[in-house]
Amino acid sequence: MSVQASTDVLVATRPLSWPRIRACLAAAYGVVLVIFVLTEGVPTERLALFAWVLAGLSIGCVGRGWRAMAGLVLDWLPFIGILVLYDLTRGLADTLGMPVHMKDLADLESTLFGGTLPTVWLQDRLGPSDGWGAAGDAAWWHVVVTGVYVSHFLVTPIIAAVLWLRNRQRWISFTTHVVGVALLGVTTYILVPAAPPWYAANRGVIPDVDRLSGLGWEVIGLDRAGALLDQGQAKVNLVAAIPSLHTAFAVLVFLFFWPVISRAARVVLALYPLMMGLILVYSGEHYVIDVLLGLVCAGIVAAIIALITGAWQRHRHTAVVPSRPSAQQPLVGAGAAD
What residues have CB less than 8 Å from 330, skipping those under 6 apart? Predict the structure, then answer.
């Protein structure tokens, strides 16, 4: 056998390198995920969503030893556990005997807007039977409505995954903000259970309001995706409208990245919470009051964490940097020859 032939055999039988294996696994993961989303819809249930995230991150640990996988589990398990606990607590919030705010909340909203409910006003003009198509048909913009609404379930874990891969300190900061918003939100749910517009309309408290957050799936023919979203919505507390955590997390993303992005990027990123708030009101998921309180919730958490972080950094700086001797006090050993 010639030298060239021997070389060809060695190249052909050489095992795949770990980077190539990881690349193949990542490609397969992407294909499976796309097929799942197109056929079943976006996973919105907490455990299912984080299972996809951890599966993707674990690909990067393949071939890097058990420590890499252990680090992934130890970092993410407490974070996921807290959010799952938040979901469970949120589901119990309306069973603790606190009165559910429904008519009083609708009356306050109506008073603030001159006797008109923004949700009713928007749906009367932009709803599925507004004359833009056949009666009852969803218009093209409902795809945008559903896309922005569903992004709430994806943006936070995706940002967390990217930060974990690129900058663990930033990941810790971001997940701390997320947990803070969740804890403040569930506290408010327990103390002030409140019904969203679609819920109040179903009980005749306000005029007819449809729940339109998942209507976009019908426009693009993904009815099963809409059914998956409906199943997820049915499992959560239906009277946990104050504050709007859809808004709170959108504002949180904006505030978190504000110091490190350009002015142009700030303008673009600011559109996200604005669109989220408008869509939540239009789709019947929240009153304007809920949206504003979601903004306040994110602001409070960001401010508290900033104060704590600033105080800790000042403490570390004081502990590390030695105090300088005053001009009037001689250095140690000065004048020893006197």
Answer: none
